[in-house]
Sequence to fold (571 residues):
Amino acid sequence: MAKKLPKVDVVIVGVGWAGGIIAAELAKQGLQVVGLERGKERKTEDYFMVHDELRYAYRYELFQDLSKETVTFRSNEKVRALPMRQYGSFLLGDGLGGAGVHWNGQTYRFLPYDFQIQSKTVERYGKNKIPAGMTIQDWGITYDEMEPYFDAFEKMAGISGEENPLGGKRSDKYPTPPMKYSPQMKMFQDATKKLNLHPYATPSANLSEAYTNPDGIARTACQYCGFCERFGCEYGAKADPVVTVIPVANKTGKFQIRTHSYVRRILHTGNKATGVLYTDVTTGEEIEQPADIVVLTSYVFNNVRLLLNSKLGRPYDPKTGTGVIGKNYAYQVQKGNALGFYENMEFNNFAGAGALGVTIDDYNGDNFDHANLNFIHGGGIRISQTGKRPIASNSVPKGTPTWGKEFKANSIKYYNRTLSVSGQGASMPFQHHYLDLDPEYKDVFGDPLIRLTFDFEEQDRQLAAFLAERCGEIMKEMGADLIQVAKDLGPYDIVPYQSTHNTGGVIMGASPDSSAINNYGQLWDAENVFVVGASSFPHNSGYNPTGTVGALSYRTAEGIIKYSKNGGILV
Fold:
């Protein structure tokens, strides 16, 4: 029988960006909050002088143990789903701070178009522009309503940047200036301006200068070491929950973190949750934590899986399009890039930072005319200087043997003589792309795994080819001697690595008929349950999701405070 603990005001499942922000905001208001994190505790000191590419980038030190829990994948319902036994397409974070510890730091705001994508697309092009089976919908909130929450996240994290000339209107400038412009970034900037495009510095959670945020958290500037993605930051220069919001929550005395706490069920009676059931993985003991409010802030797959395993909310049925939990899974279109080789120019590609780069949004969202194109939305195009680490980096021209003397010679020659311009395309949801519980495979506790049913569509292939052509044009303007354009998008597979930008499954909207949560993250079917994360996105944009997740977290924190005082469905 599970050990039952005293009731608290709020229990949070997963203490990453969303969980940390909500914990800090609620604890500052005097609510008693418990945060349950299934991984171990982390601190900045763990990463002092640890630039170990093999340990972190290839042996996945900071990621979920797939032998205990994984996802199963199939491209369509006609084939059997199989478990992901080794990391490939995406990386699932684990431990205090979650994916916020090992992210790159690219911190975009979704475009105004994104939040009203269905209505804006129909308004400009008519209903026939949306292909059969595509299930885009408005988010139930506008960019203008979201703007204050974007601003709050950026000021908390100290985002370094400059205004996006094609983005939504801002109420204030970024709290810190953009990062340094390297020579290759300047080349991209000059080339895109010559093509009448609109470059701007990639918004960065890697601080360009020392900064103290509104909560009094002081951090130092980025050292451009190039060990960001898949690594924790030894300087605390990269904003992550462990060095920003979690200390604020701890300082209140109202927040308690319990690590190694694997939440298995949301307990509920009728349309209200009563708490959660979790297992202490260090002892195997089952523990019940009663709470007035339950907040899910774990990763996309885990939010969906916990709701389905708890039988909370209406499971999505892809045959009828009814139900909501598991609906509108979306990914990212990463294919669409140009690699340039230079014979007489060398660059310092080893130095860099996770969000060091320059971006254009001329081909993102609906910033360009789609009337004669066979896709909607688009993608950001950028040059990124994230730091070429030695194990991963050996770009060579096509035709080079994959081993031997010539391979070695070209690997050395072109290590600092290549630049890449890449597109990151949006992913639109389709009725047959969804998440559900696998009927066969289970985790270490005997609970069903989450099953992913997804493949790329013609929409994605057309978008990838379009972005690739644009990338090639920019690379040509940058003067590369040899250009290799990757534009052919094959079937989706769980390998190799592509993007950890999985979205959807507990989507937000204006109606319980078509969405799982309202625009405060409140579950329509259980008013004291709130769900936060990229699982809220009805589709995925041409951007990294973290900035929008952070903004939604501040929005949800505000909603939870309102609910704690008055109850009911928030409007």
